[in-house]
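Field reference: sequence -> structure
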Amino acid sequence: MADSDTLTRTREATALAVPWNVVVHDDPVNLMGYVTWVLMKIFGYDEKKAAILMLQVHQLGRSIVWTGQREKAEFYVQQLQAHQLQTTLEKAA
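Structure field:
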């Protein structure tokens, strides 16, 4: 029984360690300059990096703007949504 418990706990810990992506999606409402500004404000990105991510959103329909631990990713999703950006959270591939 002890071996089974160890195996289960190891799988749970591994699942929690999986990195998560914060994804911003294109929308017809927010202007490109605003999206750039929000990315700079929330993540501390410089204008060049924020503009590159914004263009991915605009041209590709989505951009992974940050990857890391789930708790921090959830915080970023909330921050982006508070600024009216369409944002989702997904497991990193």
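Note: The longest helix spans residues 2-17.
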